[in-house]
Amino acid sequence: MSVLELREITKVFPGVVANDHVSLSLEEGEIIALLGENGAGKTTLMNVVYGLLSCDGGELLVDGRPVKIKSPRHAIDLGIGMVHQHFMLVQPLTVTENIVLGHEPARFGVIDFATARKKVLEISARYGLKVDPDSRIMDLSVGMQQRVEILKALYQGARILILDEPTAVLTPQEVRELFAVVRSLVNEGLSVVFITHKLEEVMAVADRILVMRDGRLVGETRPSDTDTVGLARMMVGRDVVLRVEKAPRACGDTVLEVDGLHVKDDRGLEAVRGVALSVRGGEIVAIAGVDGNGQREIVESIVGLRKPTSGTIRLKGEDITHASARSSIEAGVSHIPEDRHRRGLILEFTIAENLMLGDHRLAPYSTRGLMRPTAVTAMAKRRIVDYDVRTPSERVLASALSGGNQQKVVVAREIGRDPELLVAAQPTRGLDVGAIEFVHRQILKERDSGKAVLLVSLELEEISALADRILVIYEGRIVKEFAAGEADDETLGFYMTGGGGSKLAPETGATGARGEGER
Amino acid sequence: MSETHEALPEQRRWMGVVQQIGAPVISVIIAIGIGSVIMWVSGYDAGAAFAALFKGSFGSPKAFGDTLLRATPLIFTGLAVAYGFSAGLFNIGAEGQLFMGGLAAAYLGVQLAAQPWYAAVPVLLLGAMAAGAAWAFVPAVLKARIGAHEVITTMMFTYIGKYLVSWLVVGPLKAPGQIPQTVTIGTSAQLPRIQTLFSEATLEALPFLRFGRAHMGIVVAILFAVIMWAILKYTTLGYEARAVGFNPTAAETGGISVSSTIIKALCISGALAGLSGAVEVMGVHYKIFDQFSSGFGFTGIAVALVAKKNPLGVIPAALLFGALSAGSGLMQLEADVPQKIISIIQAVVIFLIAAESVIQWFIKRRQKEALSHAG
C-alpha cells in the first residue's frame, strides 16, 4: 500500500495552472525524485501535500485514507515532514532548541532540555546524522543546518520526508553525505520525495523519477532505464545540449593581471592571502573552490566593490587596484554578481531601468544628467530580443520575472555593455537546464569574440564545461592550476578541500613544516 | 505558461493607478466616518460639524484661499519628506530645515529690501534652499560616512534650529519693540496675495478669484512638485536616488556611490523644507518669530505618506491636510466641536494609509509567493 497517494491534484494561481491533474504515489521505503525546471510546479505540489497551500481539485491519501491537509501542523501529525529550500531555523538558538521548537517536552511548564537533548542524540545516532546538539545554528555550515532541518522533521515523527532542492546549497562532498543519509532513512522504512532540477542527482539517488513540465506530470522512469540526456529532453520538452560545444581557444593579450592580492572580508579577517592570477583575451579562467574560501573577496576587489589591503590589479596594463565600481565599469569590467536579488538587480525597477544600471550616466542613455527615455527603451527592447528575456514589455518590473529571466536581464546588461573583462560569479546559480545552457552559450560567445572571462563557480560541472584554465582556491590561496580536461572532479575536490596543502608539505620539507606551525 | 503570468503586472498597471488614488480616498471617507462616531459619542452634531468643516475649507473662494494658504508650506515639506523616502531616507527633521529656510528668507528679505522683486524673490528662495540644505548636510554626512541614523540626527538638528531662531529673535535679529520677532522684510521680497494680482474690475467680474490670504507661494509650490516629479523620473540624479532607495547594494554594484547619493538626496530634501519656511515668511508673516511654523515639517511626513512618496500626489495630499486645518476653525465656531477632533481625523487618515501599505505589502507578498510557486 502506498504511504502517500495524490490523485488528480490541481492547483490554480491567478493566470496560471501550477498543477494540472497530477497523480502519483509513494511506497514505503522508496525514494522518488520530482524532476522539473523551475516553475514546473514541483514545489507547489509538495506545498499542497505539506498543507501550505490548499488544492483546487483532486484528492490526497495518506496510508490509503483520504485526508484534507489544512496546515503544516496537520501534515506533521500525519507523519509528513518537509525541508524547505530556505531553512527555517532560529539562528541564535542551539541545535536542540531548534529541533524541539514547537514540540518542547515540558514538565510543569518548564522545558525539559535534558530529555530533549537525549532524544535528539538518539535520533541522530539512529540515522547517522551526526551533529552537535549544543552548537548554535549560526556557527554551523549550511550542510549541518540542513541536517538539523532533517532531524527536526524526524523528531516530529516524519515517515514521509519531502526535500525541496536540498543540494542547491551544498558542496559536492556534502551532497554525497546527504545521499548517504537519505539512503539510511529509507533503510529505516521512511519514504522520501526529492525535489530537484539536477539530472545527475536524480540518477544517483532516486528509485523512481517523475518528471514535471508546465504543471503536468509528463513522464515516469527509473535511473536504469534512462540517462541524463533522456531526462533533460523529458524535462524541457526538446533536445538540450547539456554541455555547450566549445571552440578551441585563441588566446590574445593579457587583459587581467592580479598580483600579490590580499583582501579582508567583512569581519576584518584576511580572506585572500596573496593571490596572483592572469586572464588573457579569448580565454575563460575559472576559480574552483568551496564557498567561502575568498572567491567573493577576489571578485569584489576586481570590480571595485572592496578595497584590497595590498597587491595590484591591472586591466590591460592599467592599474585599477583602487578604482571605484563606477570607474571599473567604465574601464571595461563587467560583473555578473553571485546574488542577483541582492547585487544584480533592483527588483522594484523595470527591466529597462535595470538594463541601464551602470551605464545610466553615459550617452545615449543620458546626456548632462537628463535621461533619454527613447534611447533607453530602444536599447531595452533590443536586449530583450537578443537575450531572449521572456516578458511582454520592457516596463515590467524585474520582480515579476522568473529567476531564469531575471538572470538573463543581468547577463544582457553585463555582456551587452561589451566589456573587456567579464567577471561571472556563479552565473547559473538556481537556474534550470534551459537557462543554464543559455548563460553558458553567452559566456562562451564572449570568450570566442576575444574577451577575457573570469568565472567563479561552486559547480564543478560548470567549471569543466566552460573553463580553459582552472585555478583551485583554498583558504584564500590558489593551491593548484589545471588546464582544461587535466583534472577530474575527484582531483579538483581533493584540492578544493585542502588536500593539496598537506600533500605539498612533505615535498618542501622544512618550509612546509614551518608553514604548518604558522597556522 | 510564463507568457500568461508575466502579462499580469502589465494588466495590473491600470488597476494599480486606480488603487493608488482610490486607497487614500477610501481612507479619508473611513476617517470621516470614524470622526463622526467619535463626535456622536461625545454628544456633538457630526453633520453640522462636517458641513462647517467643508464650508470653512471649500465653501467660498475665501475659504478655498485659506485651504491653499495652509497647503502651501505642506506641499514643500511633503515634497521634502517624499524625496527622502525615494532615496530610502526618513527626513524627520524637515521642521528644523524649515526654520533655517525661514531664517534665511527673513534675513535676506531685510537686506534686499531695496532690490526689485525679480531680484529679491529668487535670491530669497535660493537662500532658503541653501540654508535648509546646509541644515541637512551634517546629518547627511554623518549618515553616509558613519551610518548615524538620520531619524535621530535630523530630529536633533530640529531642536538646534528652533532654539537658534528663538535666540536670534530675542537677541541679535530682534526688531525694535516689545515683541520677539525680526524686522519686516521689504515689500519687493514678499510674495503677493493672488487676488492682488487682478484688478478690482476683474475681481468684480470673476468673484471666485477672491482667494483671500492665499499667496503666490502656492504657484511656486506646484511648480516645485512638477520639478521634483521630473527629477525623479527623467534625471540620473533621481534614478540614482531611487536605485539607492530600493536596493543600495545593487546600486553600489552598478557603480553608483551610495554615500554621495545619500548626501545629495538629504540635502535636496532639506532645501525643499527650507523653501517651506521661506514661503511662510515671504507670503504670510513677512518676518520670523519662534512660533512661525505650526509643525508643518511634521505634518509633511503625513502628507508624504498619503502621497505615497509621489511628488505629484503631494499636491492633493497637502490640499487635504490644508483643508482640514482651514475648516477646523469654522467647525469649532459653528458646531462647537473642538479643533482636536480634526487632529483625530488626521491621525485616523495617517493610520489607515499606513495600515493600507501594510495590507498592500501583504498582498504583494502573497502574489509574489504565488508567482514563485508557479515559476
What does it look like?
The complex is a heterodimer of chains A (519) and B (375). With 519 residues, chain A is α/β, with parallel strands linked by helices. Chain A has 2 domains: 2-236, P-loop containing nucleotide triphosphate hydrolases (Rossmann fold, 3-Layer(aba) Sandwich), CATH 3.40.50.300; 254-518, P-loop containing nucleotide triphosphate hydrolases (Rossmann fold). In chain A, helix 14 (403-416) packs parallel to helix 15 and helix 18 (499-508) packs across helix 19. Chain A starts with a strand and ends with a helix. Mean pLDDT of chain A is 88; it is low at 502-519. With 375 residues, chain B is an all-alpha fold. Chain B has one domain (45-336). Chain B is 77% helix and 0% strand. Chain B has helices spanning 2-41, 46-58, 61-86, 94-111, 117-146, 150-170, 200-205, 217-234, 236-246, 248-253, 258-285, 296-306, 311-335, 340-374. In chain B, helix 2 crosses helix 13 (311-335), helix 5 (117-146) packs across helix 6 (150-170) and helix 8 (217-234) crosses helix 9 (236-246). The radius of gyration of chain B is 22 Å and the shape is globular. At the A-B interface, strand 2, helix 1, helix 10, helix 11 and strand 20 of A face helix 1, helix 9, helix 10 and helix 14 of B.
What's the topology here?
The complex is a heterodimer of chains A (519) and B (375).
Chain A: E1 2-13, E2 16-27, E3 31-35, H1 42-49, E4 57-62, E5 65-67, H2 72-77, E6 80-83, H3 95-100, E7 106-107, E8 110-111, H4 113-126, H5 142-155, E9 160-164, H6 172-187, E10 191-196, H7 199-205, E11 208-213, E12 216-221, H8 228-236, E13 254-264, E14 270-280, E15 284-288, H9 295-302, E16 310-315, E17 318-319, H10 325-331, E18 333-336, H11 340-344, H12 351-355, E19 366-367, E20 370-371, H13 373-386, H14 403-416, E21 421-425, H15 433-448, E22 452-457, H16 460-466, E23 469-474, E24 477-483, H17 489-496, H18 499-508, H19 510-518
Parallel strand pairs in A: 3-10, 3-11, 6-9, 9-10, 15-22, 15-23, 18-21, 21-22
Antiparallel strand pairs in A: 1-2, 1-4, 4-5, 7-8, 11-12, 13-14, 13-16, 16-17, 19-20, 23-24
Helix pairs in contact in A: 14-15, 18-19
Chain B: H1 2-41, H2 46-58, H3 61-86, H4 94-111, H5 117-146, H6 150-170, H7 200-205, H8 217-234, H9 236-246, H10 248-253, H11 258-285, H12 296-306, H13 311-335, H14 340-374
